[in-house]
Sequence to fold (1214 residues):
Amino acid sequence: MPPHGQMRAPAKPKNAKGTFRRLVSYLAPHKGKLIAVAACIIFSTAASATGTFLLKDVVNSYIQPLIGQAAPDLWPFAQFLLLMLGMYLAGAVATLVYNRLMMMVSTGTLNKMRKDMFLHMEDLPIRYFDQRTHGEIMSRYTNDTDTMREFLSQSFPQAVSSFCSVLFSFCYMVSLNIWLTLLVIALMPVILFITKAVGKKSGANFVAQQKAVGELNGFVEETIEGQRVVQVFCHERKSIDAFETKNENVRVAGTRANIFASILGPIMNNLGHCNYVIIALVGAIMIIHGYTNTGVLISFLTFTRQFSMPISNLAQQMNVIMMALAGAERIFEMLDEPVEEDKGYVTLVRAKKDEAGNIIECKERTGMWAWKHPHKADGSVTYTEWKGDVVFEDVTFGYVPEKTVLHNISLYAKPGQKIAFVGSTGAGKTTITNLINRFYDIQGGKIRYDGINIEKIKKDDLRRSLGMVLQDTHLFTGTVKENIRYGRLDATDEDIVKAAKIANADFFISHLPEGYDTMLTGDGANLSQGQRQLLAIARAAVADPPVLILDEATSSIDTRTEALIEKGMDQLMKGRTVFVIAHRLSTVRNSQAIMVLENGVIIERGNHEQLLAQKGKYYQLYTGMFELS
Amino acid sequence: MSFKKKDSILRLLKYAGKYKWPLMLCPMVMIGEVAMETYIPKLIQRLIDEAIPNSERTGELSQVLICGGLMIVMALVSMGFGMAGSYLGAKGGMGFGRNLRQALFEKIQTFSFKNIDKFSTASLVTRITTDVNQTQNTLMMLVRMGFRSPIMFIMSLIYAAQMNPSLTTILFVAVPLLAAGIIFIMKNAHPRFQIMMKKYDIMNREVQENLIAIRVVKAFVRSAFEKEKFGKAADDVTQAQRNAEKVVLWNGPMMQVIMNGCIVAMLWFGGQQIIRGEMGVGALLTFITYVTQILMALMMLSFLFLGIVLSRASISRIMEVLNEEPDIANPEQAVTEVKDGEIEFDHVGFSYAGDKDNLVLQDINLHIKAGETIGLIGATGSAKTSLVSLIPRLYDVTTGTLKVGGRDVRDYDMHALRDQVAMVLQKNVLFSGSIKENLRWGNEHATDDEITAACQAAAADEFVRSFPDGYDTDLGQGGVNVSGGQKQRLCIARALLKRPKIMILDDATSAVDTATDSRIREALRAHMPETTKIIIAQRITSVMDADRVVVLDNGKIADVGTHDELLARSEIYRDVYLSQQKGVA
Fold:
């Protein structure tokens, strides 16, 4: 198997601008809604800023003039307040509307993004999955989309609204008193500087914390996964010590990150108070000298409080936005991975022979299949009967180009033949079968299927014609029946039972609590390894494919049970081209041809008797079993 | 979510250890901050209502300066308290998290196999990572806000009532309204969020299954089918998310309406009081500030409450592990010396659940002499692994007794026993680190020569040397850089380094080819004549040269004897043998 690469996700985007632009294109279909959102945010913040602004009028025009009047006329005051109330209500409605719209936009965008990811992922080549851990790919769906969600549903509207309220407050402040506004602006750099400094510290510490947590989690996963080994080797004390070191690292880094994350609140809040005092002081001096009046100052002071809050808020949102962009970048990176290339144009179709003996395409089930081969040059179509003839011509392959694992492999399998591969672990047996179905593409030589270069065959049709029972059996959450039906979606219940009988799985299935309707969960965790292999065989049987590849299909089934299913397997293999990989030589004995592989080279070939007579590696392997008796 | 009421965060506080001081100090400091924060509006009032008009009248700034100076001092003190609160909260919370994590991990290290079986590996990992984080964050919020918010609420209320009792009545309408609103929203949102989480799990499972089984999906050309399945799962998530969020998003506008409604009401009633000369403008503004603080405190409390409720599930999962009793414990006055590798099963019965009526192993009687080599063979599910697991006391026998070196295994100190019983597990793992480090698990003081010798015996030396870094080759997580057969051989070498009195190989060479397999057995025999060897295998060749072979069938010993004896009299053994050598001339 090719090695897994381990990559740690960076916290900062590499190309923030490009990623942002691409993200915008994701939001483009929601343009109408987003414009409405922006309008509502503007309206809502304008309403609350205006409310503050109107405080001046309430005090200056409606309250102070009435002070000391015996029978004040309160009606205009009431009218004005009703107006304010109306405006506030409208603002709240606008908030509700944009919250709701943004919720639709963010959930819709995430839905699209998830589907895009999955759809793309399904089309990625096997190589992609070899190079990454499952956890790494999984975190695109979990962590990265989660930060996207936070960004879309919270940070984005909050940033816009913070920006708007700063803007509106600023406008009103200018209209109230330009000199005091200039003073506020002059004080701004202090706040910005502190915000930035703390933000930077917090960011760096956050990265350090993530790293420490990542290391700890890795250690925990590994140790608990191997807990039984830990116990068998009495390694508990050492594990605890190693854990303690990593745990302490998390504590130190976490404490720092957390201090800097939460310290900004009190700093900003109280700097706001200081700002307030300075403005009040300068304002008072201005009043004394007749440059302004009390009403204006009061209103202005209220704005001062409203002004600094969104600015520090904006600064904090920037952190989330950066994280979301980094997440988006990783998502886009996955979406940019090139999909499995398929230049094939030859397809597999149902066929029959007409009176003249020519192969023609047909719709009905005839049991006969043909390769439909369109010729671009003259637009004609030729049909080749599907037989299951596989030829390797001088095939060379490596998972990475610089390290060849298969050297000049040539072999042929005639229709109906059983071809076996034997050899030690890592000799390249599984690799060969992965080339037939084009999980990987060869670097040199040719593979022909019924005389057609497999690169010309459409991948889906190629794979559909090959039944595989893989080394690691994987089952899906669902019933036993559904899992067998995975082989052929239109299989009837009778087909399924028949296939299960061929695989000798019918017996244990009918002993399950709900028979064929028993739910399997967690990759079939409630079944034994052997039982899972039987199901995988049934799955291949129901698919009824022309060519079968059995990769250690019976390795976890004990030899007695294997002997029991042999009849079924024989029935399954009858008339088909079969490639068998097995450790157990008893499994491969009755093959027409046995290939002995070593270090990616076929060193011996022939049938069982011929190979024994050669007295080579096969003979050694085989007699190795009995030389001790 | 299933949790008991008693699983509250307070029950975990004993794990705070030395971090209880910052945890206790944090709320005090927070109270200091609140005291300043609630007093500052009073100064603002003085500034506006007295100092500024006075300075306007008299033309001198002394009052503004005094008031402003006081305010700056208080702001700085408040800032100091606030920063101290951040520091203490972080230190205490993270320290608590560390101790809790440590306690969990240490607890798990005391677990027997039976305890581990009960929790799955994945769930134990989640408990140590996600659940502890959740709890630690809740505690941090609790120490920072748990006292701050109620005190903010009370102090603001007192000041407001002192300033203007009649205006305070507005709060009698606003507070219950807000509280009712919050409760209504939370009650409605909670179950919807739970549904959402379930849908999330289903969707994530879908992705995970596709990652694991990508070869199956591709081989059967089922990507269209899987895409459709995922599409449905993703749509379900979106639908559930919308259902949940559409309730919560009322929160903001509701707060806005109540807050602004209060302001307008205060302007109306307060304005009239100003007109009548009962109150100053600054007082009104200050009053508004207090009301805002009161409502905000209430909102904060609701978040805190929600956090505590949400963390309950995590806490009860943590408690579950901490309260789990290790199933196997060391005896008092434990024997620390294992005399030799003699093993005696005396009417042993075993059940994983401890159920005497439903035994996996029944009435096992077997005497193994020290130094003997025993083969163990039987069909899948015949309880071979269960049988050998009893020897190093990974599980306790349910009935009967099992003696090692002439003494009941339950009399031994567990570490002493396991040090003498090396077991190469069927599902074995290597850890990240170099090959040498992994091998030293067997004996941390092993010299390089001893390591090489063990690897030679396990037929691993040759391939290890073929690696560019030899014995210093770094194995990734789970030993991903070596093949299955190589991994098995390294695991055997690791066990050999223990120089045990009993060595158990549980299908430990299944991925090793037959020739290498026989070389390893040869080496074992030559190097460890004193050691009792028990070999479980599928391949008959792996056991046929043993002194005796035990045939297990359905949890019972069907027969014991040499290869030739069994071939002659045991039908099962003959079947297995024949099935593996059919076709040989």
